[in-house]
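Notes from the 1:1 (GR / supervisor)

We went over the backlog. Supervisor wanted to see one worked example end to end before approving the batch request, so GR pasted a single chain during the call. The sequence is below; no edits were made to it. Supervisor asked that the structure be written out right there so they could see what the output format looks like.
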Amino acid sequence: MSTRPLAVVTGGAGFIGSHMVDLLVDKGFRVHVIDTLVGGREANLAHHGSDVVLDTTDIRDLEPSSPLFAGARFVFHFAGIGDIVPSMEMPVDYMTANVMGTVKVLECARAAAVEKLVYAASSSCYGLAATPTPEDHPIRPQYPYALSKNMGEQACLHWHSCYRTPVNSIRIFNAYGTRSRTSGAYGAVFGVFLKQKLAGKPFTVVGDGTQTRDFLYVTDVARAFWAAADTALTGQVWNVGAGKPQSVNRLVELLGGEAIHIPKRPGEPDCTWADIGKITRDLGWQPEISFEEGVAKVVAAIDYWREAPLWDPASISKATETWFKYLG
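Structure output shown during the call:
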């Protein structure tokens, strides 16, 4: 029987989750990964060998007695469904996965008496926010994805207050980096641009490209989740971003290539900007990877996106019809 501590990572074969697994293994943990592999890749875990055990159970099907959680010290909950437009088209799926799935994970963590559960929340809960955005900013979700992620966070905080389940929540701003998703709906700018660069096509810049996003490299995100687990504090919510917004035009400049412009979408913020003062004060966490360094890391691994869908103005227009319909 191994004497190494155990952690559970839901969604651990996906983008941020797989980097969390890397960090945990480096810290001497065994890891149970729960991932249906709808958005994740088993290949993201292959280099860990027997240190990592993958289970493809849907989190909505978990029972409190699940042996996957037995003896676990920490649970990191990343599993769920992302993307804005599909959430407007399939709201029930988002509520069941992101809310009831979270409740199932909470019940497993409670039954296993884990030391800490850290929930992956979303900065989309703030809606069109004042910037920089602190944790006590009003919550104004604009679409079912944002609502479902915030309701998952509320469930975590309720389990903390009602059952004394030790939880913390991290509201992620604009995470980017290697292993980000390559399939599915039109969405995150990095995946779109990287495939366009591979194909020698122009970057489809929304609006004039001056809009800014608080991009944070994925290993810095994983470090924040570790800090949120390895603390005596519980029942806390922290923003995680770089605290230094970057424009889409700057991303185009770093990637190198031509750009074409497509219509600005209603309900999209001109700026996302995390106030990271609270997590810096409470946990001593700060970002380490500069935007320029992070983009270089992604470009060095660009072949990962070779099988991603190639988007152009016509296909983007078709894919975002629902967005304009409901948020216009």
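Supervisor's comment: The mean pLDDT is 96.
Batch request approved.
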